[in-house]
Design goal:
The complex is a heterodimer.
Chain A (H helix, E strand, L loop, with lengths): L4 E3 L2 E5 L4 E6 L7 E6 L5 E7 L5 E4 L2 E5 L5 E6 L8 E8 L6 E3 L3 E6 L1
Parallel strand pairs in A: 2-11
Antiparallel strand pairs in A: 1-3, 3-8, 4-5, 4-9, 6-7, 7-8, 9-10, 9-11
Chain B lengths: L3 E4 L2 E4 L5 E7 L5 E8 L3 E10 L2 E4 L7 E2 L9 E3 L8 E8 L7 E2 L3 E5 L1
Classes of the chains: A mainly beta, B mainly beta.
């Protein structure tokens, strides 16, 4: 189907450790988006990846889009307590404004 | 300030009592949509709108109605709420040609 599978569901890390969340699809994706939702907050757009094999960086965050455009990952280097939240990937479905979100990875960072 | 405004923030109601959650955006966005967020399920799209008077069903439209009479407003209507509609609801908007979604602050709805 058009769903995207996201793993892991939860991740607890010590501050300073790295963190990675993965997003997988059974079908080829036109693009993939990543959002962050702080506890009690709303999802905030982080980035969109479009090209096969694309890698983009935002400070300590590295986003990758697989060569086959069926998977993506978000890696955070040296986590900080400000990274706490749930990270979602999202794919566009058929129709411009139709989106499918992964179930999210909830990151907890212990100081 | 560019934003998507949802009201109310919290709502407790009883089964069968009609309610409306309002959503307004001040960015002149063509596209607007509604999502519900449930633990372990991520965000699921309820309805979306491509422009005024143009709406379509998302993945979980049952029990919901929407209308888009003005470009800035996209209310979500629950004609006869049921307990399985207890959830966190988000409105989102985006500009035509740009798929980046801007979300409202959310409405936590409890149906007793």
């Amino acid at each position: 189907g058009q769903q995207v599978m996201q793993i892991p569901q939860y991740q607890h890390v010590q501050e300073g450790e790295d963190f990675t969340t993965y997003c997988n699809s059974s079908t080829t994706l036109s693009n993939i988006q990543w959002y962050k939702q702080r506890p009690g907050g709303h999802p905030v757009f982080l980035i969109q990846l479009v090209k096969s094999g694309e890698v983009k960086k935002q400070k300590r965050l590295t986003f990758q889009f697989g060569e086959a455009k069926k998977n993506s990952s978000l890696h955070i280097t040296a986590t900080q307590t400000t990274d706490v939240g749930t990270y979602f990937c999202a794919r566009r479905g058929y129709g411009f404004n139709k989106f499918y979100f992964g179930s999210g990875t909830k990151l907890n960072v212990k100081p | 300030e560019a934003q998507v405004t949802q009201n109310p923030r919290y709502l407790i109601t009883v089964t069968g009592k009609k309610l409306t959650v309002t959503c307004s955006q001040n960015m002149n966005h063509e596209y607007m949509s509604w999502y519900r967020q449930d633990p372990g399920l991520g965000l699921r799209q309820i309805y979306y709108s491509m422009n005024v008077e143009v709406t379509d069903k998302g993945d979980v439209p049952e029990g919901y109605k929407v209308s888009r009479k003005e470009k800035r407003n996209f209310p979500l209507i629950l004609e006869s709420p049921s307990p399985n509609q207890t959830s966190l609801y988000f409105c989102a908007s985006s500009l035509k040609g740009d798929e980046k979604l801007f979300f409202g602050s959310g409405t936590q709805l409890s149906v007793l």
